[in-house]
Write a structure and sequence with these properties.
The chain is α+β, with helices and mostly antiparallel strands. 32% of the residues lie in helices and 22% in strands. Helix 2 packs parallel to helix 3 and helix 4 crosses helix 6. The longest helix has 22 residues.
């Protein structure tokens, strides 16, 4: 940007400002902003102190606090030893158990961790010991990201600022009206999302609190065999991505970190972190090259190619049955349930949403079968499921072009059940927060004929 100061009659204030940013840190956890609108603080807070941690909790969470304190101390040594870095003060862990929501967040400039206590249940990952997994994951963030910092954690960023002012000024303004501002920031940390999340999921060989499971492998296999995987640059950020793409950042980061550790030993992750902290621009590709002899871009392509060869080998050994697509939309299509007498099929789907919140869809299989029969189609064109015929080609065409059924019930993410007479569906979901700001899962019933919903429980966390 150029300023012709003499032309515009500007008066330049020849001052370069060197300042320390006080902006709060970015958090490597995909936490919805609604979960920072805390409930009323009507329960007392307590703390447990151990050698390296403070665990802060509210009345009623005493046992969880004791367990978390023990877990944190168990993993402190293995993680700090790997990265040869220890936090400069005790890390605070804040436990939150006032919503039926699961997550963790690490504030690496503050030596602070937030943990939402209910166990995580996601169809994109397998079953893991939640507390041991999330405590180790977030503490790894604290240690690994601090090991990558180019400055002390008390200096999150430095920026240079150039200011220009109007020559003519008001009597009550010291330098005149601002006419030009240029700010150049220099962050103390530059860590791509895939590396932060990959190392936090990897943790350490032998801990076993998180591991590569069949769910994760399904996502990676699908991406690689369809050539829709995120490239080395794309997986470096969460911005401008749908929730399945953000999960792919985690997914590929974990797989690539595992591959690097398998190829060069787990110490390679610590060495890359250290090399990045010594780099003038924090380029992770250069840091990987310095440690492994070839740049990160090259190593990533080697990882992709090796994975593709293995997946193609496995694919050749699999015999595929014929399939029928029920619904072409949504990356979440889950929990298909046939009603007791075989009339209905219900399932959860996020439909055309870019995020993962699911809705309940239901299809009357008997009605669909009758429509198919009336269309005069031959029996060889009929697909069967639980002795009930499927839908007509016209309906299939509508689904393939986005003309899906209208969802029956929104905001359902867990299991559901039909009543024995097929007149009702019972399920759990979270509605608006209660009077104290707490949002819990409760049971509801939905009558299929009247389309009316009835709440069965209140604040029972079911």
């Amino acid at each position: 940007m150029k300023y012709r100061l003499s032309t515009y009659g500007l008066r330049l204030l020849g001052v370069l400002l060197l300042a320390v940013s006080g902006v709060s840190t970015a958090v490597f956890a995909q936490v919805s902003p609604i979960y920072y609108d805390y409930p009323q603080n009507h329960l007392k807070w307590f703390s447990v102190e151990s050698d390296h941690f403070f665990v802060h909790y509210q009345e009623g969470a005493e046992r969880a606090a004791a367990v978390v304190s023990r877990i944190a101390e168990d993993v402190y040594g293995p993680i700090t030893d790997l990265y040869d870095h220890k936090p400069d003060q005790k890390v605070s862990i804040i436990l939150k158990d006032r919503e039926d929501y699961s997550n963790g967040a690490a504030y690496f400039f503050d030596n602070k961790i937030d943990i939402w206590l209910p166990a995580l249940n996601t169809p994109l990952r397998g079953t893991h010991d939640w507390l041991r997994n999330v405590i180790t994951h977030e503490f790894t963030h604290i240690v690994q990201i601090q090991a990558m910092m180019t400055r002390k954690r008390s200096v999150p960023a430095i920026y240079l600022q150039w200011l220009a002012y109007e020559k003519v000024r008001r009597p009550d303004v010291l330098y005149g009206f601002p006419r030009g501002v240029v700010t150049v920031p220099f962050a103390s940390i530059s860590v791509p999302a895939w590396f932060a999340e990959g190392t936090a999921q990897f943790q350490r060989f032998g801990l076993g609190y998180d591991h590569w499971d069949s769910h994760r492998d399904m996502i990676l296999r699908t991406r690689i065999l369809s050539d829709t995987y995120l490239d080395f640059t794309e997986m470096g950020t969460f911005s401008s991505k749908s929730s399945i793409e953000r999960e792919t950042v985690y997914n590929q980061g974990f797989a690539f970190s595992l591959w690097l550790a398998d190829q060069f030993g787990e110490k390679v992750l610590a060495d890359i972190s250290k090399a990045a902290s010594q780099s003038s621009n924090g380029d992770i590709s250069q840091a990987i090259g310095k440690v492994t002899g070839q740049s990160g871009d090259v190593r990533f392509e080697q990882f992709i190619n090796a994975s593709r060869v293995e997946y193609l080998r496995v694919k050749k050994e699999v015999d595929f049955d014929s399939t029928f697509t029920l619904t072409p939309e949504g990356f979440f299509n889950l929990n298909p349930v046939v009603s007791p007498k075989g009339r209905y099929l219900a399932w959860l789907s996020n439909g055309d949403r870019e995020y993962s919140r699911t809705q309940l869809f239901i299809r009357d299989l008997v009605e669909s079968s009758n429509e198919k029969t009336h269309s005069g189609e031959g029996s060889d064109m009929v697909h069967e499921f639980s002795s009930v015929h499927w839908t007509s080609p016209a309906e299939q065409h509508a689904r393939e072009h986005g003309l899906l059924e209208t969802p029956l019930i929104d905001h359902i993410s867990g299991s559901f059940s039909f009543s024995g007479d097929e007149t009702e569906i019972v399920y759990s979901k979270a509605r608006k927060p209660n009077a104290r700001g707490e949002q819990y899962l409760d049971l509801y019933r939905f009558h299929l004929e009247t389309k009316k919903e009835q709440r069965i429980t209140n604040d029972q966390r079911l």
